[in-house]
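Human:
Class, as today's exercise, you are to examine the entry below, and be ready to discuss the fold:
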Amino acid sequence: MDYKKNYAEVLIDGKVYTLGGAEDAGYFQQVAAYVNRKLGELRSHPGFMKQKEDYQLVMLEINMADDYFKAQETADQLKRQKEDSERDIYGIKHELINAQMKLEEAQTQIQELESTLQEKSRQLKTMSGQVEEQAAKLAEELAVRKTAELKSQQEEELAAKEQEYQEALQAERTAREEGLRAKEKEYQETLQAKQQEYEEALQNGQSACEEELQTKVKKYEEALQAEQMAREEALQAKEQEYQEALQAKQSAHEEELQIRSRELQDAIKAEQEAREEALQAREKEYEEALHAEQAAFEEKLQAREAELQEKLQAR
């Protein structure tokens, strides 16, 4: 390879020399300055100038060789340090790339978790709406069923009570009719006995007894009719009393049915509110756990990044 050779005059130990080479004049001047500095350092030592000229030259060469080897060793150390630094930098870059990849992966996981959280929230809201609808339907069905059962039970009780009252009324009426028939029979027998007695007396005193007999018969008939009317009025009063008692009992049962229906609706409403509160509490707990896990992961990632930054700064 052809290159241009440069020449320069330099002053070494008070003498002018011409140096040539591929380097520029400034480099030659630096070399001359170095040689003059080494000569000055050696001459500053006592006894150096008393030595022979060839010894002084050898000492100069030895010092220059010592500086060369020291400079070479320093250069080798710097080269090794540079290589170590490059390896460390490569390792740090590799760790930073891994950290970046982990960060991106973590961000992807966070996005997936957020998407999952949103999906879970939507599912939870959907489930909550479905649960509320099912609870409302169940409450409505339960209320209708309970109301129907209570109404059927009350109707059966009322029918049983009414049948019982009717049977009691019929028994009372039958007893009164039997009493009336027995009384009427007794009156007929008494009347026949009186008639026979009057007939016998009539034979002894027909005209006087006939009037008395008619009067007696009329009194007996009026008494019998009055007693029959009294018995019918008492029976009607008793029947009215039973009807009023039955109506009062029916009103009381209807009021009790309404009270039970209101209590049932209140209980269903309280149970539905409790379920809604429990569902909201579970949703809040799930969100807090997810946020806590995400915060812990972010803190761990930040700590790893800070550790890598500290290692990079230390190196």
The chain has a mean pLDDT of 83. Helices lie at 25-43, 53-314. Residues 251 and 257 are 10 Å apart (CA to CA). The chain has two helices and two strands.
